Amino acid sequence: MSEQEEFRGWVDVDWEAARATNHANWQDRVRVHTPAYGLDRYREDPGYLSDVVRHDLARLEPLLPSGSVAGLDLCHLQCHLGTDTLSLARASARVTGVDFSADALAVASRLAADTGVDARWVESDVMVAAQAVGTDFDVVYTSIGAICWLADLRRWAEQVHALLRPGGTFYIRDGHPVLLALDDRSDQLTLRHRYFGDGTADAWDGESSYVGTDRLTSTQSYEWPHPLSEVVQALLDAGLQLLRMEEDTVLPWQFSPRMVEVEGGWAWPEDERALVPCTFTLVARRP
């Protein structure tokens, strides 16, 4: 959410129509995000890894049979500009980045070429990723701001299962659904949005994104609330086994102007920090 983003209510919208609207919105965001994502840091420092990936590797790698992503086939779903995908490649994984935005993948491909990183990029909706990408990955990775854009988590989880080879590991860290139910503009912790969904979408309209200063022209978007129980159950129903679950008080972006900068990102003021989770992390394995 951003200062200029306005909530327009809950709407019953067809998935294909919502996806088309979100696709236009994310294609437009590429123009805004490219100068704001600090891409030159990756060009200038061959050892630079995103803060997101540094955090995630510390939690993922101890649960991998080999103890490292090095040499593993890794599929990054909803990879956007590819900065985290590139970081995982620098950790010596063999990476495939998947996103539905051709413009985002063009930026990712150029960045990989500029930095000498070997990566594969596939333009695909995450809901048909296994068909588009192929299967047999050691790791499927998803992180931060991803699944709120998906209406059907059961179908998503089935794709994750299909992408993994037996014994493969799935990792996700994302914004906690309790956090996303809060009013980001309130001067106190106030619930404004739904924690539980009913199949309808949250409709948004805004000219700005979470980074960058340019205005968007494709301003409308749709998101879906997913309680933590739905995320876990979708993965279990798809046949995955849960290995680890965490909740944390630190977020990689400033959700609210009241958040303060701390080591590793942003958090609520200290006297409120223990009141609400900011992220959740799940690690699961395909038997």
Number of domains: 1
Q: What is the alpha-carbon Rg in Å?
A: 18 Å
Low-pLDDT regions = none
Structural class: alpha/beta
- Main sheet: which strands, in order across? 4-3-2-5-6-12-9
On the 0-100 scale, what is the average pLDDT? 96
Helix proportion range: 25-40%
Kindly report the CATH topology: Rossmann fold
What is the first-to-last residue Cα distance?
37 Å
What coarse outline follows from CA principal-axis ratios? globular
The H-and-E topology, N to C, reads as EHHHEHEHEHEHEHEEHEEEE
CATH homologous group name: Vaccinia Virus protein VP39
Individual helix count = 9
Q: Let me know the number of strands.
A: 12
* CATH arch. level architecture: 3-Layer(aba) Sandwich
Strand content range? 15-25%
